[in-house]
What does this fold into?
Amino acid sequence: MFVLYTGSSAIIIDHEIALDLGYSATDAIGFSTVRSAVGKEKGYRLLIDSFEALGKKTASVEVRCHDLKDQGVEGLIGMTFLKQFDWCLHPAKQVLAVR
It folds into this structure.
């Protein structure tokens, strides 16, 4: 499960998802550090061929890889992806519209 998280500037995926997609830490273009409730967590950055979510696709996008298992998610859809599209969230109706 991926979570839409506007509080994240980046797309963050679990490192096991990266492995499933054929990427590993040896493909890293740099390091990544995120702050969480437990402190600073280190990971790595990848440039992946494409990312698709919410019915939209973008090519050649940077993602950050971190261990997300403890949070019970496979990834976070952050603003690097969301800022490319017009979207509106209607919490009361539980609707997300993306153009």
About this structure: The longest strand covers residues 39-53.
